[in-house]
Amino acid sequence: MTTMRRSVEQTITRLALRQLRERASVAGTAAARSDAPQALALLLDYEVSSAIDSACQTALARHIGCIVVPSSAVDAAVSLLDGAQVRVGTYVTQPEDIQAALTAGAAEIELDAAALVTAAGALDAALKEFVNLCHTAGALLKLDLSRLAISQETLCRLSASADAANVDLIGVPAESLALVRSSTSRYTGFKVAQVHSLAQARDLLHAGAIRLGTASAPQLIDAAQTSGP
């Protein structure tokens, strides 16, 4: 990749992250902000494993930012949401599955870091390749570190490596968000999964998350629309 192309991609990523942070700021406020529910919807990764047709219709109607489906359902979701603003994402556990997901039309790839940290240095060596692969296809790469049984120190180190490789979003445990943010650049975006309530969502957005993974996206949006200031 040329220096100019890398610079352009970094600039685009930073602008996108800044926009996500602005939305997160709005979505973290009380319902007195009329645009809070809409901002929240755009920050959600609506995680579904079945009833893909219905889930896609829900994501479309609620203006949800991204629907995350099994790799086997990416083709169907992309067809159902063709031309819509909802992005289709998928979770992969092996790096060799990234290309197939991109070919199927996934716009966001969330990679389980477990397959990359079994050998020393493997993460640092591979991440830039995967970032380039995704960015060339116009997709985002998210690295999930939240499922690793590692120390806080190692989590911070791996997050710094992902940051240096220009990974678009890093998934971390909720309880580690503040600490990990302090070890990365201000341009780094963080995702927290397993969000179940509006109060939890707002707390995480206030703490600096800019993407929330949840199977309860419609319920969170409903709660944001009906909650008081």
Q: What would a concise description of this structure say?
A:
The chain has 229 residues and is α/β, with parallel strands linked by helices. The protein has helices spanning 3-27, 36-42, 52-62, 74-80, 98-104, 122-136, 152-164, 177-181, 198-207, 217-226; strands at residues 44-47, 66-69, 87-92, 108-112, 140-144, 169-171, 189-192, 211-214. The N and C termini lie far apart (49 Å).
Description:
This protein has one domain (3-226): Alpha-Beta Barrel (TIM Barrel), CATH 3.20.20. The chain has helices at residues 3-27, 36-42, 52-62, 74-80, 98-104, 122-136, 152-164, 177-181, 198-207, 217-226, and strands at residues 44-47, 66-69, 87-92, 108-112, 140-144, 169-171, 189-192, 211-214. The protein is built from ten helices and eight strands. The protein starts with a helix and ends with a helix. The longest helix is centred in the first third of the chain and has 25 residues, at 3-27. By secondary structure, the protein is α/β, with parallel strands linked by helices. Strands 1-2-3-4-5-6-7-8 form an eight-stranded parallel barrel, surrounded by eight helices.
Which terms summarize this structure?
TIM Barrel; alpha/beta; 229 residues; 10 helices; eight-stranded parallel beta barrel; single chain; disordered N terminus
